[in-house]
Amino acid sequence: MPFEIKSSGWWNEEIFSPARFLCRSLLDFVYPPVCWGCHLSLSSDEFVLCHRCVKALPYLQQPALPASRLSWLQLEKIFFDSSLAVYQYSDIVQDLVHQFKYNGMTSLASLFGKAIASRLSQNGDEIEALVPVPLHKSRLRERGYNQSLLLAQQIAQVLGAPVNKGQLVRVKNTISQATLSRQERMSNVTNAFQLKQPEVFGGKSIGLVDDVFTTGSTMNECSRLLKDAGASSVMCISIVRV
Ligand SMILES: [Zn+2]
Question: Separation of 177 CA from ligand 1 center, angstroms?
């Protein structure tokens, strides 16, 4: 059953503005925000989900997997070294990611970023730079933000690794991967990205950040460029892994 969102709509903030903030504060006062999971009131230190519902999210049993364990991706050649994600696909996770990605609910970057950073710390892998998967400039203009960059910035705050913003660029405005077959996804992203200064990645262990990891085609194409540039390792970091 799809996860049902019962709320007054206070989350749907496209762009932050003082008027919007005041409006939201007033709405929060009149209609106190409720948890998306259990519909009980949220306390001041909770956002979107209460602590109990955060704990009950479907966490992956094995957040980190080496590329050799991802043979089901059926990629011709895998260029990254490993994948790290936090959640399995489920209705609630899918809804949260959708709100984060398309509905301006950018504050979710904090919840997701902290969950990812905690898995990364447990895993103990060294990451020297976080590289967000970029949007094409026309899509960025439309959406107003790149969710992968917001995620990378949150992870960086915990890990202390720098975010490499703007070096990896999307030069082809690809159509959404969601409706494409595996084969179409691969050709859709081929040569869709470029590195501005490949030399800055030489010898570095990179954490490549995207919101979801499905067929791995996008992350693999970005990893190909990073490896060609001499990156020593690439870990694909995402909120969800299918
Ligand atoms: Zn709850």
Answer: 32
Residue with tokens 């489920």: 90
CB neighbour burial string for 165-180, b if at least 16 within 10 angstroms, e if fewer: eebbebeeebeebeeb
pTM: 0.84
Architecture of domain 58-241: 3-Layer(aba) Sandwich (3.40)
Are residues 211 and 239 in contact, defined by beta-carbon separation less than 8 angstroms? Answer: yes
| Cα–Cα distance, 2 to 83 (Å, whole number) | 27
Residue range 129-185, pLDDT digits in tens: 999 999 999 999 999 999 999 999 999 999 999 999 999 999 988 777 777 777 777
Rounded to the nearest integer, the mean pLDDT of the chain is 87
- Report CA(77)–ligand 1 centroid distance (Å): 42
Domain with CATH 3.40.50.2020 in the chain: 58-241
For ligand 1, the distance from its centroid to the CA atom of residue 37, given in whole angstroms, is: 5
Confidence of residue 13 (pLDDT cuts 50, 70, 90): very low
